[in-house]
Amino acid sequence: MTKELHFVLLLGSLRRASLNRIVAETLPSLAPQGVRISQLGSIGDFPLYDQDVQDRGMPRSVLDMAEQIASADGVIIVTPEYNYSVPGVLKNALDWLSRVTPQPLAKKPLAIQTVSPGMIGGARAQYHLRQILVFLDAYVLNKPEVMIGQAASKFDVDKGAITDQGTRDFLARQIAALVELTRAIG
Fold first, then answer.
1. Residue 78 forms beta bridges with which residues?
2. Which residues of 21-51 are buried (b: 16+ CB within 10 A; e: fewer)?
3. Max intra-chain CA distance, the chain
């Protein structure tokens, strides 16, 4: 019998009406049988990274998230693109998590998803995030890449739902690929 997998989801947006939040909240329903997806706490609870703060002791919010990541089988990051890169709040969270020993993202299977109203769906944020994750030694899933562009035509923001079946199917395919990567590394 195959062990159930548990993936944790790191949301790179703080906005309540974020398209990325809609994706994050939809993912558990798209997971295949034997896979559980749960959302981590808000990265908005992390203070701005400061070595002086770290020297006084790691913030509880950082340690709690690091423990959840370390105990998970894999991670999914869902994030918008800000100014051709990752949101500052996500970079701040990754900076904090990079200071935890042992490093919770090291050797961890990880998938990235970006959503944007623009044409290229957050591609630049993904590429910058991939550079950051190299330092953290995460095993980033290469394909399929999920970059949901022209999101206004694929979401019903008022209902908090992804209305485009092709998008839902594509997200499910990426989760299945993360399952394969996780089992291959396992």
1. 11, 113
2. bbbbbbbeebbeeebebebbeebeebeebee
3. 49
**pTM higher than 0.70 for the full model?**
yes
**Bridge partners of residue 77, in order along the sequence:** 10, 112
Sequence-ordered list of residues with C-beta below 8 angstroms from that of 180, at least 6 positions apart, any chain: none
Q: What tokens were used for 124?
A: 């630049």
Distance CA 97, CA 134 (A): 14
Residue 16: Cβ-neighbour burial (10 angstroms; 0-12, 13-18, 19+): exposed
**3-class state of residue 115 by DSSP:** strand
Amino acid, res. 35:
V
pLDDT tens-place values along the chain, 186 residues long: 689 999 999 999 999 889 999 999 999 999 999 999 999 999 999 999 999 999 999 999 999 999 999 999 999 999 999 999 999 999 999 999 999 999 999 999 999 999 998 888 999 999 999 999 999 999 999 999 999 999 989 999 999 999 999 999 999 999 999 999 999 998
